[in-house]
Design a protein that fits this description.
Elements (H helix, E strand, L loop, with lengths): L1 H14 L9 H8 L5 H32 L2
């Protein structure tokens, strides 16, 4: 029962959307002076995207290695 609760909590944690602000202080200072804030949102999304790609690639390689070792 405890394993199911932990597993469900972990899954809910992974699918819960979280607002992230991934800008460095210099980017934030330059982009906060803008009126529309669309450029700031676009740069923030790009930074988060670039941060996530290495984790996805390492996860894929880890999964492939795991499958190869368990054959």
């Amino acid at each position: 029962m405890i394993k199911k609760i932990i597993y469900l909590s972990f899954i809910l944690f992974l699918i819960t959307p979280i607002d992230l602000e991934a800008q460095c202080s210099m980017c934030r200072a330059v982009l906060e002076s803008e009126e529309g804030q669309q450029t700031a949102k676009g740069i923030n999304d790009g930074i988060v995207y670039l941060m996530a790609i290495p984790y996805v690639l390492v996860g894929i390689v880890g999964y492939v290695v795991f499958r190869l070792l368990n054959k």
